[in-house]
Each structure stands twice: as structure tokens, then as C-alpha cells.
């Protein structure tokens, strides 16, 4: 749709594994070299793993185009099969006729015998036989064990069947299981295909546009290419999806250049909203969240410590039976009263010692806040009397209210 608008002969960012568009980065070149080595080797397993969309299948298609002529290939792309179904698929790929020796149909042994006979015949003719299994992480342990047994088909010089397993990183984890130790020891070459770096991502975009027929300046500016790398994390399939939609958006807007704004809008259409945060942005948000949580916790601890710490004037107030909100209000009011005048509290103490009526007066308590009394007068009176000096006779005066009334 947009190819002619940008001077292209074809769409450059198809997600089909077209080997013409294979970008030979250093890691892709090494992956292809491992596959070619496996064909020339003496049999066993070759393992190629990589993240989803890293280009494993495209590398495999390029490998099939460079495979030697005297090499017979069986390619299995749907490995969710039983052991018998897998052998049936292998025999069909190699065009092997299997004759059933029993009335119930061909058995597992019938397929293994037919395959062994075929491999011996092609080996005598100077041919190699290669079995490629894509999406191999979907193989069950029983099927993997059957594949290992197929590598027992050998002569004195070499094994008759080379098996290439291509899959996601889970395949490597599967081969670490104890029950698959024998298979893991037969892996003669293995390679893990990592995503592209930022510079490689820019070269990847230029390469695909060049293959599609572009000769001039590429339509993605520097900021757009940087943003593409942030959003795709260097995964080729994600790059294809985002670049294709960005070019379509620029075409719809009559633009010849793709900027960061168009890239962000395209990402909103092809990616989930949670995926549009770059890895560094997610780390930054996590750091900010941790700092904010620390500030909240520290502030809460400080408030709690201030609420628990009472000034000397507040010791004359009993908070028994008062709610936490009222207690905090009383502490705040008492602190303010203490800063106004220390002499006022001394005068109140003398008055309390001289007269039992002054000891029970409610004026000594802080005024209520928000309608909640911080303490009762009856609770304040005994404490004021108890703190009066014994030499002044304040204790006897507080203890003998009848005499005072006379």
C-alpha cells in the first residue's frame, strides 16, 4: 500500500521468514555457521535457540538454500506429535515407504527399520541425511528420547542421521533435565541467537529497505530509530511489525519522514500498552516507586514517634480511655502550652497545693479540640496533688477537703 509512496518495489517489513531479507549480523552469521558445521559433522544433534522473533526460522531458511546438493533433508515444523507420528512424518519427508508387518498397521519398529534401511542406502551412495525440527521446545521428553535412539543408527565411521533442533530458550532448559542427559551429551554444536543491539537495529532497518528497492535517504530519522530500538528491544520480528505500521501511518498522513511521534502512535496500535515502556523506563519507574514508598514509611514513623513523645506539661494529663486521635491532639496542645510560658505551670502547681478546689479545677487541662476532651478534671486532680511539695503541707490540704469547706 505504501511502497510506491516511499519509492519501494515491495513491502520491506513482512514478518514472513524470507531469506532474501536476512540481515547477516555477527550473531546471525555465527548461527548459520553452526548449522553448516552440523551438516558436515559426524552426526548427532545441533542446537539453535533464540528468543521469540529473533530470526531462527529465517536463518534456517537461509541454511536450506546453502545446503550441499548431496544432502537429503526432512523438515518438521509442527513437532507436537507422538513418537509414532514423528517417525511417520520423518518417513514421509524422506519419501520412505513403510510396509506393515502386522494386520493392525505399521508399528514403531516398522518405521525405524525402514528408516535405517534408507539411511544405509543413501550413505552408501555418498549422501548425508539431515532432520530439522523447528519449534523443538514443544517436543515431549518421550519424543526427544526417541530422537536420541535414532542417532544410534550409525556405521563404524559416523552416524547416519544428523538432527538439528531449533527452538526457544526453554529447549535449553529441557536438556538440563537428568532424564535427557544422554541426549545433551550428543549435542555437537549449540548456539543461542540474541536480539540486536541499537546500532544493529539501525543497520537492520536500512538493510531491509535496501532489499525492498530504496536507494535514497531512509524515511526514519535518528530519534525514530532510537525509539524503535527502545520499543522492540532489538527483536527482528517486533522491528518488522513496528516499522511496517509506522510507514503506513506516515503514508496515511502524507508524510515522507517517520519521526518519534509516528513511531509512538504506531506502537500503540501493534503493541500492548504495558509493552510500550522501554526497559530503562520500567527500571526508572521502579526506582521512583521504591523511593516514594521509603518517604511514606519514614514520614509515618516520624509522625508516630512525635505522637508518642509527650512534653513535661503533658505528664499532668491522663489519656486513659481516650482514642488515638484524641491522644495525639492532646499531645500537640500540651506542647504548644509548654512553649508559651513555663511560669504558668509553676503557678498552677502552687495554687493546687494551697487549695483543694484549685487542684480539681478543670482550667488546668488543655482545652478540647474538635469536640474531644483530652482528659477529665477528676483524673488531673490526684496527679497535681501528688506532685505538690510535702514541706508546704499541700498533701494534707488535698487529703482533707472537709477542713477546707469549714
Do you know the CATH architecture of the largest domain?
3-Layer(aba) Sandwich
Rough outline? globular
In DSSP terms (H or I, runs of 4 or more residues), the helix count works out at: 18
* Number of E strands: 5
Helix content: 40-55%
CATH topology type of the largest domain: Rossmann fold
Indicate the proportion of strand residues: 5-15%
Topology as a string of helices (H) and strands (E):
HEHEHHEHEHHEHHHHHHHHHHH
Q: Specify the CATH homologous superfamily of the largest domain.
A: P-loop containing nucleotide triphosphate hydrolases
Would you tell me the overall average pLDDT? 77
Q: Report the span from N to C terminus.
A: 111 Å
Please summarize the sheet with the most strands. Answer: 5 strands, parallel
Query: Cα-atom Rg, whole angstroms?
Result: 42 Å
**Strand pairing plus helix content: what structural class?**
alpha/beta
Low-confidence regions:
278-282, 313-406
Quaternary form: single chain
Number of domains: 3
The level-1 CATH class of the largest domain: Alpha Beta
Major sheet: arrangement of strands = 2-3-4-1-5
Describe this protein with a few key phrases.
single chain, 406 residues, alpha/beta, Helicase, Ruva Protein, domain 3, 3 domains
Structural notes for this entry:
- The chain has 406 residues and is of the alpha/beta class.
- The protein has three domains: 4-13 and 197-275, Helicase, Ruva Protein, domain 3 (Orthogonal Bundle), CATH 1.10.8.60; 26-193, 3-Layer(aba) Sandwich (Rossmann fold); 310-401, no CATH class.
- The chain is 52% helix and 8% strand.
- The protein is built from 18 helices and five strands.
- It has helices at 26-40, 56-66, 83-93, 108-124, 141-150, 170-174, 181-184, 198-211, 222-232, 236-252, 260-270, 279-308, 324-340, 342-354, 356-359, 377-386, 394-399, 401-405, and strands spanning 44-50, 71-76, 128-133, 162-167, 187-193.
- It has a five-stranded parallel β-sheet with strand order 2-3-4-1-5, sandwiched between helices.
- Strand 3 (128-133), helix 5 and strand 4 form a beta-alpha-beta unit.
- Helix 1 packs across helix 2 (56-66) and helix 9 (222-232) crosses helix 10 (236-252).
- The longest helix is centred in the C-terminal third of the chain and has 30 residues, at 279-308.
- It starts with 25 loop residues before the first helix and ends with a helix.
- Mean pLDDT is 77; it is low at 278-282 and 313-406.
Amino acid at each position: 500500500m505504501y511502497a510506491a509512496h516511499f519509492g519501494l518495489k515491495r513491502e520491506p517489513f513482512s514478518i514472513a521468514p524470507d531469506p532474501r531479507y536476512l540481515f547477516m549480523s555477527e550473531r546471525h552469521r555465527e548461527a548459520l555457521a553452526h548449522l553448516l558445521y552440523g551438516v558436515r559433522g559426524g552426526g548427532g544433534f545441533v542446537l539453535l535457540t533464540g528468543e521469540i522473533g529473533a530470526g531462527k526460522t529465517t536463518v534456517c531458511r537461509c541454511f536450506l538454500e546453502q545446503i550441499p546438493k548431496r544432502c537429503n533433508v526432512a523438515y518438521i515444523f509442527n513437532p507436537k506429535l507422538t513418537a509414532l507420528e514423528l517417525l511417520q512424518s520423518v518417513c514421509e519427508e524422506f519419501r520412505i515407504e513403510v510396509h506393515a508387518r502386522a494386520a493392525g498397521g505399521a508399528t514403531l519398529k516398522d518405521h525405524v527399520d525402514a528408516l535405517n534401511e534408507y539411511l544405509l542406502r543413501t550413505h552408501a551412495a555418498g549422501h548425508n541425511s539431515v532432520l530439522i525440527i523447528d519449534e523443538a521446545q514443544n517436543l515431549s521428553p518421550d519424543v526427544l528420547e526417541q530422537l536420541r535412539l535414532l542417532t544410534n543408527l550409525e556405521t563404524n565411521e559416523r552416524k547416519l542421521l544428523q538432527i538439528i533442533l531449533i527452538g526457544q530458550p526453554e529447549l535449553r532448559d529441557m536438556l538440563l533435565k537428568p532424564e535427557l542427559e544422554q541426549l545433551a551429551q550428543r549435542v555437537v554444536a549449540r548456539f543461542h541467537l540474541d536480539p540486536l543491539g541499537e546500532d544493529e537495529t539501525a543497520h537492520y532497518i536500512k538493510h531491509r529497505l535496501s532489499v525492498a528497492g530504496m536507494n535514497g535517504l531512509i524515511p526514519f530519522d535518528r530519534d525514530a530509530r532510537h525509539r524503535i530500538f527502545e520499543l522492540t528491544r532489538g527483536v527482528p520480528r517486533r522491528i518488522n511489525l513496528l516499522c511496517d505500521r509506522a510507514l503506513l501511518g506516515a503514508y496515511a498522513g502524507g508524510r515522507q519522514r517517520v519521526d518519534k511521534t509516528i513511531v509512538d502512535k504506531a506502537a500503540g496500535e501493534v503493541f500492548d500498552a504495558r509493552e510500550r515502556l522501554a526497559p530503562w523506563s520500567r527500571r526508572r519507574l521502579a526506582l521512583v516507586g521504591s523511593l516514594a514508598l521509603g518517604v511514606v514509611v519514614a514520614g509515618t514513623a516520624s509522625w508516630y514517634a512525635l505522637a508518642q513523645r509527650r512534653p513535661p506539661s503533658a505528664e499532668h494529663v491522663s489519656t486513659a480511655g481516650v482514642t488515638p486521635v484524641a491522644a495525639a491532639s492532646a499531645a500537640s496542645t500540651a506542647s504548644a502550652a509548654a512553649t508559651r510560658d513555663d511560669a504558668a505551670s509553676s503557678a498552677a502547681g502552687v495554687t493546687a497545693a494551697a487549695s483543694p478546689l484549685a487542684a480539681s479545677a478543670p482550667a488546668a487541662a488543655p482545652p478540647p479540640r474538635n469536640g474531644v476532651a483530652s482528659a477529665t478534671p477528676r483524673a488531673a486532680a490526684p496527679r497535681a496533688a501528688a506532685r505538690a511539695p510535702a514541706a508546704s503541707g499541700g498533701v494534707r490540704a488535698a487529703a482533707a477537703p472537709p477542713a477546707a469547706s469549714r
